[in-house]
Amino acid sequence: MAGSERGCPELQGSQLLWTHEACSWTAKSADYRALQELAYVNHAGVPVESIYVLMTAFPLVLMAHQSCGPLGTPAPPLAKALWDTVVVVLPLTFHFSAHLEQPLLLLLLATSILELRRCSKGGLSWQATFSLDNDRLRFVSEYRALVMMSTCVAILAVDFSSVFSRAQAKTEEFGYSLMDVGTGSIIFSSGVCTMPKRGGASRLYKIMKLWPVLLIGFVRAALMWGIDYHVPPGEYGIHWNFFFTIAVISLVSTATDLSALASATAASLALGAYQFYLSWLGGANFVLHAERLGLFTANREGILSSAGYLSLHWFGVAVGSTLRNSGALRCVLQLFLLAAAGYFVNLTLSFAGLEASRRMCNLPYVLFTVSLNAWVLALLGSVDLLAGRPRTAMSLSVAGVQDSMLPVFLFANLLTGAVNLLLQPLMVPFWPAMAVMFGYCLLWSVPAAMLRMKKKKLKFW
């Protein structure tokens, strides 16, 4: 499947074709369910290098925001939030969903170059420091928020086949795609932002506070079953969902509370043992091809992949510690080196016949995710070092999403479900689909920006 293929699905005999002529808005319920069963299957994916290129939108969008700047003080709060969304969120929506990736990248690049020429007068030095936001490294906060924002864009965009390339949907067994990036990046970024524990509440108390995430997982599973919502079982299984994975990672990481060095060691050991099970004990064949006869086998993807995701989180903890304890320029260089090392090791594994699989969260997928996120962090760190001081205020929508990460993700999931119940997204033409995407992004980004202006956060624990 070519990465550029878009359009609405149409069955011609036993073959599923994608044409814009098939965008007829609606189809019979039975026919639409049959199309859904086939429309999300992606055996091809895209070249891994294209994912790295896609991620360059993050620093470019931030530089464009710095160039445009926020609205002045006299503007009402809603106008400020809307302007911020137009400058930051809508370009991300176009970039990660529509046909306009290359022109948009060129436009953002031109704006960013002009901004860099204006700001970077003194060059870089080993004494350079990162800017802070509420005592946290600003570029790390921006990174985590942008990962979540692009994930929120993609989870609905993938349902609009006239907008979103089918080659960027989640891969069925092996390969790379934009939709494969989100879950791993969210888990890795949570590790990066994990701060060292300094006393405070007991571990048992912290574990008990994880109940909202578990509750969300159970409620989502019940709702999906109750309304017969289409969810490809190859994602996590029949009943499992990403909120259960978040709960498992949070539970284990809170219970163990490892240092940076111990986290890296534990991640390596856990990932090595898991890959040994997949490669030499028949685990890969079980995950990909076993029948779903009981509760465990029905949810084997979500349960077993938690080992890989836990390793990702622990690697993130180690990287986050390095960011907080290294010189700024040295840190950026180390991130670029980590990104390159992960890429070339993964390439070597691919030549040896070991391919990345999001469905299993295997060794190559973990290495790819670490490498890709190190690449993004290095780019954002470079932007922070090159930008003038003092920096323009942090984007309201970016900061708002960072402040209320899980509630924003949950709200975006609810909106995605509502759109799929009200429409048949696979059949919607391009421009109406983009209009829905813009409205959807406004609904979760503008409230986040407003909360930031009011200095309020939404937290479950």
UniProtKB/TrEMBL annotation:
Q: How does it sit in the membrane?
A: Multi-pass membrane protein
Parts of the chain that traverse the membrane: 145-164, 207-227, 239-262, 269-290, 302-323, 335-353, 365-386, 406-423, 429-451
Q: Where in the cell is it found?
A: Membrane
Q: Which GO terms describe its biological process?
A: GPI anchor biosynthetic process; protein localization to plasma membrane
GO MF, one annotated term:
glucosaminyl-phosphatidylinositol O-acyltransferase activity
Which key words are in the record?
Membrane, Transmembrane, Transmembrane helix
Q: Which domain of life is it from?
A: Eukaryota
Q: Principal localization?
A: membrane
The answer to whether keyword Transmembrane helix applies is: yes
Q: Which GO terms describe its cellular component?
A: endoplasmic reticulum; membrane
InterPro entries in alphabetical order:
PIGW/GWT1
Q: List the Pfam families.
A: GWT1
Q: Kindly provide the name given to this protein in its UniProt entry.
A: Myb-like domain-containing protein
